[in-house]
């Protein structure tokens, strides 16, 4: 009796669609914020921000020493008034952070000697230490961004370090161009234009100075989020995290300003101690804002994946073509015929016939 195999019953397509829909993660603002917090907590958010803050603090004093040491060589270009103004600004800032004895006995003579006479060893060592510390800070940011997007290790470690160094040098060039404009501010900037244009320039500067500054910072952060990833995302995918980083930075700056204004009212001693603490917290909040923005972009990418870019589609086509070529190569090769083995010998010494030949014609299966 022949056995019949039971064919599998077709499943209900409506039920499958409902199960697939229920399996998808819920999407919404609260879900996005929760996912951002979970990813950032699992990725050691505060450790990454503290590491970046340490390298920022380490790179800034040598950079300032290098800049001050170079002023002794170019003092004749700017004039004596500019050197005196820089000297007074440094001493005034030092009085808020150090005691009068330290300022008068150590800081003031040192700054005066550096500004009046060029010191090549200070310039060289200062810039080298600043380059090392600044590139390490940039490397910390790049590592944090790649970890947030689960792309850490895709780029080789040596190349990632060199990439962070190049990125830091490019950022220094942009800062050298942009810092003079930031230092002038909206009040002094119109004065560099002719008298006939000052009123109109002052109107536009007062109206768009701070909004334009915020837009430039957001674009710079979005560029960092894009360049740091080995597997690039579209540029607009970095804008949400850049905006969030800007908001976190502004809120933390307001909190630091309130803290400094409150602590300085308690007395001179606490005010002097609060300045370096505020500087450390300022560097920490910069790193915290950038890392939070990276995890926010990663959470958006998980919940709403971006479409493939043209470059990624071309790479995918090349990969598929190479796979198809590797599958067709074995089929094109000639098939080697295996040599025919002689039939095994029977115990009586005669060759044993195959099983099909031993079946008699009158035997029924």
Automatic annotation (TrEMBL):
Record keywords: Cell membrane, Membrane, Transmembrane, Transmembrane helix
In the bilayer, the protein is annotated as:
Multi-pass membrane protein
Compositional bias (Low complexity): 330-339
Keyword Methyltransferase tagged:
no
Which intervals carry biased composition (Basic and acidic residues)? Answer: 352-365
User: One GO CC annotation, please?
Assistant: plasma membrane
Question: Region (Disordered): which ranges?
Answer: 1-23, 320-365
Tagged with keyword Transmembrane: yes
- Primary location group: membrane
What Pfam families has UniProt attached to this entry? Virul_fac_BrkB
Q: Which residue stretches does the UniProt record annotate as biased composition, category Polar residues?
A: 8-22
Localization (cell) = Cell membrane
Q: Where are the transmembrane segments?
A: 53-75, 162-183, 203-227, 239-260, 272-298
Q: What is this protein called?
A: Membrane protein
Q: Which organism is it from?
A: Actinophytocola oryzae
């Amino acid at each position: 009796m022949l056995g019949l195999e039971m064919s599998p019953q077709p499943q209900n397509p409506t039920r499958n669609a409902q199960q697939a829909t229920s399996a998808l993660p819920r999407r919404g603002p609260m879900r996005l914020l929760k996912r951002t917090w979970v990813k950032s907590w699992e990725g050691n958010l505060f450790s990454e921000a503290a590491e970046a803050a340490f390298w920022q603090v380490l790179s800034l004093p040598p950079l300032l020493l290098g800049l001050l040491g170079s002023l002794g060589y170019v003092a004749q270009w700017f004039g004596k008034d500019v050197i005196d103004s820089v000297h007074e600004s440094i001493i005034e800032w030092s009085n808020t952070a150090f005691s009068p004895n330290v300022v008068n006995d150590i800081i003031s003579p040192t700054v005066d000697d550096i500004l009046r006479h060029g010191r090549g060893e200070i310039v060289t060592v200062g810039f080298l230490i600043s380059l090392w510390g600044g590139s390490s800070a940039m490397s910390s940011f790049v590592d944090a961004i790649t970890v947030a997007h689960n792309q850490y290790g895709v780029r080789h470690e040596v190349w990632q370090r060199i990439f962070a160094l190049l990125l830091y040098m490019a950022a220094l060039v942009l800062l050298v161009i942009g810092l003079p404009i930031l230092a002038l501010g909206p009040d002094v900037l119109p004065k560099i234009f002719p008298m006939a244009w000052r009123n109109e320039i002052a109107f536009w500067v007062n109206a768009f100075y701070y909004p334009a500054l915020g837009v430039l910072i957001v674009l710079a952060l979005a560029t960092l989020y894009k360049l740091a990833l080995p597997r690039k995302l579209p540029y607009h995918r970095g804008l949400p995290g850049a905006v969030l980083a800007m908001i976190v930075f502004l809120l933390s700056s307001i909190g630091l300003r309130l803290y400094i204004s409150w602590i300085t009212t308690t007395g001179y001693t606490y005010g002097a101690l609060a300045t370096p603490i505020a500087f450390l917290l300022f560097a920490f909040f910069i790193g915290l804002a950038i890392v939070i923005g990276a995890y926010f972009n990663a959470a958006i990418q998980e919940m709403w994946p971006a479409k493939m870019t043209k470059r990624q589609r071309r790479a995918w086509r090349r990969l598929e073509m190479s796979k198809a070529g590797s599958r067709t190569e074995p089929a094109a090769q000639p098939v080697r015929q295996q040599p025919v083995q002689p039939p095994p010998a029977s115990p009586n010494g005669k060759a044993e016939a195959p099983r099909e030949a031993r079946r008699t014609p009158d035997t029924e299966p």
